[in-house]
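Methods — Computational structure assignment.
A single polypeptide chain was analysed. Its primary sequence is given first, followed by the predicted tertiary structure written as C-alpha cells.
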Amino acid sequence: MKEIWTEKYRPKNLDEVIGQKHVTERLKAYVASRNMPHLLMTGPAGTGKTTCSLAMAREMFGDDWKGNFIELNASDERGIDVVRGKIKEFARTAPLGGAEFKIIFMDEADALTSDAQAALRRTMEKFSKICRFILSCNYSSKIIDPIQSRCAVFRFKPLSREDVRDFLSRIVKEENIDIEDDALEALVHVARGDMRRAVNSLQVAASMGNKIDVDTIYQTTGLANPEEVKKMLEIALGGNFIGARDKLDEIMIEFGLSGQDIIRQIHSSFFELSIGDAEKVRLMDKTGEIEFRIIEGSNERIQLEALLAYLVMMGGSMKH
C-alpha cells in the first residue's frame, strides 16, 4: 500500500467526477470555450472541489497543465504576505504552451484573513487578463462580498449514499478486498457524503489484512457502532441507569471516544428510537445543552451521565 488511494483513484477528467453533474456540465462549457471567469467553489469537505479544479486544468491545458496551474492552501499561508508575494509572482508571468491564461487554485480560502482577502481582490482585478482564480471553501459566508461578486459560484452538495457505495465498490474490486456487505454499508454511513473520508477509512481497514467486518470499520474510523449507542439509550429509557452507565463506559473505552464524539452519535441515534416526536424534541433540547456545557469545559463524564439520568427520568414519565 504505497499509494494513498484518494490520490490513486482521483478522477483525471470531468467525466469521471461523480455526484456533481450540475457542476461538471458548466465546467465542461468553460473547457470547450477555452475561457472562464474567476470561480468560487463552496461546499462540504470531500465532495470534489479540488478534484474538479485539477480535472478542468488537465482538460484545458493538456500536457502543459502543471506549468499553468498552482495550488495554494490558504490555511497554511493565510496572511497578506502570501497574496503580495507568491500569488503576484505566479500571476505576472506569461502562460506556457500558448494557453490563454493560468489558474491559481486557493484551497480553504475561507481561512484567509480579511486583509489578505482585500489584497486578493485587487490582485484578481489587476492580473485578470492572464490569470484566473479558483477559490475553494467550506463556508462562502466567510468570503468578503467584493470577491464573491467577482466569481461565478459553484455549490457542491454532499455525495449521495449510492455514489459513495458505487465508488467504494469499484476500489474494492480493483484492490481485491474481502469486505462484508454490511461493512461496506457502515463505510457509507460513516462517510456522510464525504468521499475522501470513505476512501481513507477503507484503506485503513484494508491495511489490517483480514476480512473487513463492521467492527473493523468502526474501530478504524474512531466511531462507535450505532447499534451499541442505540442499545445504551434504550437501556436508559428502560429505567436501568447503572446498566446504561456501564454501556457508556464500554463504548468510550472500546472505541476510544471523547465526550464530544459520543454526544454527536447520541444525537444521531435519537431518530432510531421508538419514542414520540414530543419526546425526541425534549431530548434534542437537552442534548444541545449538554454538548454546549462539554464544549465550554465542563466534566464530560458528569454531563454524559446527566444525559443518561434524564433519559431514565423521561422513560419513567412515559410509563405513567
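Note: The radius of gyration is 24 Å.
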